[in-house]
């Protein structure tokens, strides 16, 4: 028998990969409604679809530049300038990615050696820790807790810094909790990274979902020396399956990531790049309409949460509702009970880390009529 690589010993199949297969195999008398994954169900802007169709028929089907077409990089730079007040050179400081999840692997491969320490939020996106394990670095989990509004404990970070971590994964607005970090908090993080020579990677795909104050860590003075930022068009522009993201930072950081990326893919599809460029140019009415739709859905999710007797923060942002179960309730047992009894899938908080135990996460990525049906089922 041919043995798998040792690096896989500490890595499990992604939770949603297994759970969705389990759900697909269930035999039910009514359709299962998923409120689990944050996969936007809304359509992209009509101009974006038109650009995709037009450029799919252009005859340009060959390999593309690893850096992306200049037009898209210019649009990304203008997007950051207009929305975050961050100036970035589109030629040297922006690198398009086939989704920011790809970027997590590329960044880790570009900067981490075997045994390097990595600061990872608990709770947080599971891919941060799994990719850290895959490159054979060592995760150092830093606590985010309800009583601290899901913000870092800087005393704990200083103690962890004694182990000389090389990278710190950051994610605000935070997934799964929806917590926001103020500019003062981001400033403290930049100062922490500067003191300890740590590369901060802020993963920032949720800034425009139910959030009045989009923020980039790169807007903080001195951030470019120790920070890079991942972003994605998936959530904001409803093109998750198209796989369009970006990483922004100073030229030396971008060049290191490009060394990995250029050996891993052959450039993004031309038509998708042109359509993504169009998405980045939509006017403010797009964001207003997005907010309106998600706000209406969120209201129904709050009503469902009330029926289930779980507590949530009405000031949280993003496309998820993070809710606390009554004391003593096991989150995985709770969601399995709802799945089998009500045919509704909700995500257990513990998959995001030990600090997520006793919490559940609802996705807003379902049409209003399905959310109303979920409400009826849980009321029954």
TrEMBL record:
What Pfam families does its record include? Aminotran_1_2 (PF00155)
This protein's record includes keyword Coiled coil: no
User: Which keywords does this Swiss-Prot/TrEMBL entry list?
Assistant: Aminotransferase, Transferase
InterPro entries attached to this UniProt entry:
Aminotransferase_I/II_large (IPR004839), LL-DAP_aminotransferase (IPR050881), NHTrfase_class1_PyrdxlP-BS (IPR004838), PyrdxlP-dep_Trfase (IPR015424), PyrdxlP-dep_Trfase_major (IPR015421), PyrdxlP-dep_Trfase_small (IPR015422)
Q: Which SUPFAM superfamilies match?
A: PLP-dependent transferases (SSF53383)
| Top-level taxon | Bacteria
**Which CDD domains does its entry note?**
AAT_like
Task: Give all residue intervals belonging to the Aminotransferase class I/classII large domain.
Answer: 32-366
The record's annotation in PANTHER family points to: AMINO ACID AMINOTRANSFERASE, L-GLUTAMINE--4-(METHYLSULFANYL)-2-OXOBUTANOATE AMINOTRANSFERASE
Q: What name does UniProt use for this protein?
A: Aminotransferase
Its source organism is: Empedobacter falsenii
């Amino acid at each position: 028998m041919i043995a798998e690589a040792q690096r896989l010993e500490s890595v499990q199949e992604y939770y949603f990969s297994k759970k969705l297969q389990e759900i697909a195999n269930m035999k039910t008398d009514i359709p299962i409604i998923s409120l689990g994954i944050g996969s936007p169900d809304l359509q992209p802007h009509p101009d974006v679809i038109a650009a995709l169709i037009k450029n799919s028929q252009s005859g340009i089907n060959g390999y593309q530049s690893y850096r992306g077409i200049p037009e898209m990089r210019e649009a990304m730079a203008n997007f950051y300038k207009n929305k975050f007040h961050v100036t970035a050179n589109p030629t040297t400081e922006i690198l398009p990615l086939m989704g920011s999840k790809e970027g997590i692997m590329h960044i880790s491969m570009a900067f981490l050696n075997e045994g390097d320490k990595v600061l990872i939020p608990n709770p947080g996106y599971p891919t941060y820790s799994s990719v850290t394990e895959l490159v054979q670095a060592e995760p150092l989990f830093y606590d985010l807790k309800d009583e601290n509004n899901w913000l870092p404990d800087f005393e704990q970070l200083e103690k962890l810094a004694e182990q000389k971590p090389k990278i710190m994964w950051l994610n605000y607005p935070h997934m799964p909790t929806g917590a926001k970090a103020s500019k003062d908090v981001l400033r403290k993080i930049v100062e922490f990274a500067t003191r300890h020579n740590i590369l901060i990677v802020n993963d920032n795909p949720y800034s425009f979902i139910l959030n009045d104050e989009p923020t980039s860590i790169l807007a903080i003075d001195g951030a470019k020396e120790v920070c890079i930022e991942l972003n994605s068009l998936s959530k904001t522009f409803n093109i998750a399956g198209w796989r369009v993201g970006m990483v922004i930072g100073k030229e030396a950081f971008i060049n290191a990531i490009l060394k990995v990326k250029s050996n891993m893919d052959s450039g993004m599809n031309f038509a998708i790049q042109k359509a993504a460029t169009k998405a980045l140019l939509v006017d403010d009415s797009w964001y207003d309409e997005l907010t309106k739709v998600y706000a209406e859905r969120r209201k129904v999710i709050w009503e469902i949460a009330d029926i289930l007797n779980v507590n949530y923060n009405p000031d949280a942002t993003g496309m998820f509702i993070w809710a606390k179960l009554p004391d003593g309730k096991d989150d995985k047992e709770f969601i399995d009970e709802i799945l089998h009894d009500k045919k509704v899938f909700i995500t257990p908080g513990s998959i995001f880390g030990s600090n997520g135990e006793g919490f559940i996460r609802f996705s807003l990525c379902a049409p209003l009529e399905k959310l109303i049906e979920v409400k009826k089922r849980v009321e029954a």
